[in-house]
Design a protein that fits this description.
It is a single chain. With about 525 residues, the chain is of the alpha+beta class. The protein is about 40% helix and about 15% strand. It has twelve helices and 20 strands. About 0% of the residues have low confidence.
Length: about 525
């Protein structure tokens, strides 16, 4: 049931006069919309700032006339106006009317009600107490009248002219019209369409509300994560006391910006969903109200416009994967800062000019004829992939202890790839990489198929991970100060794959068959 304030225009605060449905779903009087658009350039809805029209060279009146009219609200306003008048009998003078004819829309006193029920022309009409009739019921009971005669009952609907007509008009003016249907059948079809629209809008509203709820939970998780990270930052800075006060401020600022960026992104998505759910809710109210008032020929005029409008709305509630990105934890960053500061302090005592930064992984030029190096020798790509030959690329410089050397997979040709990696004691400057068998004799090779070195076998789960690398996957190797070789997949340590290996060593990666392109990533210190 529409409340009194729902029948009032938000601009003029009067009952609606020719209410127009804006793209956002809000209703305004036709003249109010025209005046609002004429008052400022690019005027949006005065309630929610939604654009009334994207671009139009037409006048404001033509633009507003192109918007659909809410005929149901128009009928509700008229019905409410009838019920709000002085309850005086339309026949007798100065006699209180306690009843109203739902079809004639006339107020009647008790005596006139009895006469009204006896007349052959009106005995089938519904006469009810004025105190029990609502504007919705009164609007729904209005008879369907012919668009041309006005005083005759409409029995047909001409789809070609979009008019409700009587049988006489159908036989004369609309006899050549190809699409003429019984009015009752047309109204039933419209009711079904409105019911379907209501269902779709209700489902979309529910999904959008659920998505907003999930975003709210994510925002809370981000807040908790920020609090935990900030506590870790404080703990780390307390360990360093006054010496690292500036580092503490920098870490906090970095952490805050990171969470602020994610929070802003989530808030933007939430705002967008709230904006869309406002549209959906507004249109759902319009459709629900239209269903409550049916049957009316006026519904037919607005059903197609409402259907087109709803079809143009974005009813999806899917959340992109970006909103589930977990902020990078500051724990590892803080620990890395402590290590770097400790190392730097130790190095200042011995050799102040040393650069504590980890080395850069660069591929040696000597990589064979079938491999092309680009990006400053950091990207390796096979020119003509061969199913029978693997290409090998080796780091230009010897590996340092506790430094992760890894590459990113940029191109694959098969679901089950055959990327091998490891370390070798042979400098690439001394041996062509095409002599693969020689490399095997002086290397530790981690292969998806089976063995590392003679007598060593890879764990089945680890082997499966190497066989299912995708574009974007990261693989790397690290040698500890204890001469243990670790395998890393997507930044995660898979454990020791070989022990007691002899240094110096060079990082080695094979490409050519299923993995045809890799790019060296920045190295990082690990413990």
């Amino acid at each position: 049931m529409a409340e009194q304030h729902e029948r009032e225009c938000a601009v003029c605060t009067n009952d609606f006069t020719t209410p127009k449905i804006l793209p956002c779903g809000h209703l305004l009087c036709r003249q109010c919309v025209i005046s609002w658009m004429d008052s400022k350039a690019d005027a949006g809805c005065p309630l929610c700032r939604c654009p009334i029209v994207e671009q139009s060279d037409r006048s404001s009146s033509d633009t507003v006339d192109a918007l659909p009219t809410d005929f149901v609200m128009e009928a509700l306003v008229e019905s409410a106006r009838v019920l709000s008048k002085d309850h005086l009998c339309c026949v007798c003078e100065d006699v209180r009317a306690d009843f109203i004819c739902m079809q004639c829309q006339d107020m009647l006193c008790t005596m006139c009600t009895k006469a009204h029920r006896k007349l052959s022309a009106t005995r089938s009409h519904d006469v009810e107490s004025v105190s029990t009739v609502t504007p919705e019921r009164l609007a729904a009971s209005r008879p369907a009248l012919c668009a041309d005669h006005g005083d005759k009952q409409a029995e047909f609907f001409c789809r070609e002219h979009r008019l409700a007509v009587c049988s006489a008009c159908k036989a004369n003016k609309h006899i050549v019209c190809l699409e003429t249907n019984y009015l009752d059948n047309e109204i039933k079809s419209v009711q079904k369409s409105l019911t379907d629209l209501t269902k779709n809008l209700a489902e979309a509203e529910q999904k959008l509300e659920q998505a907003i709820g999930r975003l709210t939970s994510r925002l809370q998780e981000v807040d908790v994560s920020e609090q935990e990270d900030m506590a870790q930052v404080d703990k780390t800075c307390d360990r360093l006391h006054k010496l690292v006060e500036d580092v503490c401020n920098k870490l906090k600022d970095k952490c805050r910006k990171q969470h602020l960026k994610i929070r802003k992104s989530l808030c933007d998505v939430k705002t967008g969903l709230s904006y869309r759910v406002g549209k959906v809710t507004s249109h759902k109210h319009i459709v629900t109200r239209a269903v409550a008032v049916s049957p009316r020929p006026a519904l037919i005029h607005m059903t197609q416009a409402l259907t087109d409008r709803v079809n143009s709305l974005d009813l999806s509630a899917d959340l992109q994967g970006d909103v589930w990105v977990t902020p990078l934890s500051s724990v590892e960053c803080c620990q890395d800062v402590v290590r770097r500061i400790e190392d730097e302090l130790l190095m200042l005592k011995i050799e102040p000019e040393l650069d504590p930064q980890p080395p850069v992984l660069v591929i040696h030029d000597n990589c064979g004829k079938n491999i092309r190096l680009t990006n400053g020798n950091r990207t390796a790509e096979t020119i003509q992939p061969d199913d029978s030959i693997d290409g090998v690329v080796v780091s230009r410089d010897p590996m340092l202890e506790n430094v992760l050397y890894e590459v990113r997979v940029d191109s694959v040709t098969d679901v089950y790839n055959n990327l091998s990696l490891g370390v070798t004691r042979i400098s690439p400057a001394h041996l062509p990489v095409t002599q693969w068998c020689t490399y095997l004799q002086h290397s530790v090779i981690i292969r998806p198929g089976r063995v590392l070195r003679q007598g060593e076998r890879m764990r089945i789960p680890l082997r499966n991970k190497l066989m299912r690398l995708q574009v974007g996957s990261r693989v790397g190797v690290l040698v500890t100060s204890s001469n243990d070789l670790h395998l890393y997949i997507n930044g995660q340590d898979q454990g020791v794959v070989a022990k007691n290996i002899t240094q110096p060593l060079f990082a080695l990666f094979s490409i050519g068959r299923s993995v045809t392109k890799v790019t060296a990533l920045p190295t990082s210190m690990r413990t």
